[in-house]
Specification:
3 domains; disordered N terminus; Double Stranded RNA Binding Domain; globular; 2-enoyl-CoA Hydratase, Chain A, domain 1; 18 helices
């Protein structure tokens, strides 16, 4: 997605040129292409084609190539190839995008629904232009969905829903994120001071907040290291199947380091880091012992599962300090414990034990202090034993439909379920063998 192609003359493609190409009708776009016809196999792979009905388009100004060979009709294949060429332009040609003064994209404005949602059929002629605009904004925002959404006058969830609705677009986003993560990690590792440590073992990645002398209080340097790790882990779905976030020393975290609130700091960076943790494709388990106050609780709520000890203490103390939430407390806490209990926690500022947290549904499991490490490992391994593909798909479906009406959510599940895992048949066969043995 970050590729900026050059013309044969060496000039960088600009937004106006790319969008101008996308706005051309098919006939005009074809004039800029060299058309190569060739023979290909017919439907089902049978070699029945007697004539050259497959076609490959070479777009001379950009150097992009697209082809189609599914049909026995030359015209149908040409139409498909043109559509694929537009898609490649949208996915691969990035253009400058000023987040403070976003370029006017009429096609984008025209596709906003009555509630501001971005909805457009992929076969709509304007679709590639809309995709290009969203990806340009995301690139300019260095992968921050929140910043890109603000520039596009959308919400973060609307941008994510749009990107994830097209598997090809989402793959481009993921690939860009992997490249960006590799770059950030290389840079970050040169300056990291182990404020967040990471260990990987047999598919389990453990991130540990590592300021034990400060009760793991959350400051900007710690968030920067956490973000570097999260961005890298997001691209490692084949080698990491589960993530555990925990704290070193006597507590998970005492919360936001109030002495670290810096004048002029990007107040959205921590929010976006918490969101990035919540949006990891892998399941995230947060292991809480000791204190988990305010900002630490907001961080913990980004996890899919929370396990804690009986002696742990949970609290939201925003009101005690005259502060208001920015990292998701007002949204994630009610969704986990219900509005009434969330208001109780937010308005009283009182601390709750691990057992009370389990009783209200704030955490999934409360275990004896002396068995904490053992139980955290067991929970993580029980997740890893299942299909990583299915775990990622289940998490994504639940997250995508959060807030939808039941009918809309059911329809989304039917239309967007990714189907069987690659090892599904093997797992089913293994179950059959075990049943026969027993």
């Amino acid at each position: 997605m970050t590729v900026t192609r050059r013309t044969p003359e060496g000039e960088e493609e600009t937004s106006s040129r790319r969008n101008a190409w996308l706005r051309l009708d098919d006939a005009a776009l074809l004039k800029d292409c060299h058309q190569e016809r060739y023979r290909a196999s017919g439907p089902g792979g049978q070699r029945r084609n007697k004539v050259e009905t497959a076609i490959r388009l070479h777009h001379r100004p950009s150097g992009l190539v697209a082809q189609a060979e599914e049909s026995r009709s030359l015209e149908e294949n040409r139409t498909r190839a043109i559509r694929r060429l537009r898609e490649r332009m949208a996915l691969e040609l990035r253009a400058p995008f000023d987040l403070e003064a976003p370029p006017l994209v009429p096609e984008l404005a025209a596709q906003l629904g009555p509630k501001g949602a971005l909805s457009i059929n992929p076969r709509n002629r304007a679709y590639p232009i809309v995709v290009a605009a969203v990806l340009d904004a995301l690139e300019a925002a260095e992968g921050s969905y929140a910043k890109a959404a603000r520039a596009l006058s959308l919400t973060t969830s609307q941008v994510l829903r749009f990107l994830r609705s097209d598997p090809q677009v989402w793959r481009a986003v993921e690939e860009a994120r992997r490249r960006r993560a590799a770059s950030r990690t290389t840079t970050a590792r040169g300056i990291m001071s182990d404020l967040v440590t990471r260990t990987d073992k047999d598919g389990l990645c453990t991130l540990t907040l590592n300021r034990p002398d400060k009760v793991n209080a959350l400051n900007v340097p710690l968030f920067k290291e956490l973000r570097a790790h999260v961005d890298e882990i997001a691209g490692l779905t084949e080698t990491i199947g589960c993530v555990v976030l925990r704290g070193a020393g006597r507590a998970f975290s005492a919360g936001h380091d109030l002495r670290d609130i810096q004048p002029g700091e990007d107040r959205h960076f921590q929010t976006e880091t918490v969101t990035a943790l919540a949006n990891l494709p892998q399941p995230v388990i947060v292991a809480v012992h000791g204190y988990c106050y305010t900002g630490a609780l907001e961080l913990a709520l980004a996890g899919d599962l929370i396990i804690t000890t009986a002696s742990a203490r949970f609290a939201d103390t925003h009101s005690k300090w005259g502060l208001t939430p920015l990292w998701g407390m007002s949204q994630r806490l009610p969704r986990r414990v219900g509005v009434a209990k969330a208001k109780e926690m937010m308005l009283t500022g009182r601390a709750y034990t691990g057992e009370e947290a389990a009783a209200m549904g704030l955490v999934n499991l409360c275990v004896p202090d002396e068995r904490f490490d053992e139980e955290v490992e067991a929970l993580a391994r029980s997740v890893l034993e299942n299909s990583w593909f299915s775990n990622r798909a289940n998490k994504l479906l639940v997250n995508q439909t959060d807030g939808m009406a039941l009918a809309d959510g059911l329809r989304h599940e039917v239309e967007n379920s990714p189907g069987w895992a690659p090892d599904a048949w093997e797992r089913i066969a293994q179950f059959g063998r075990k049943k026969q043995t027993n």
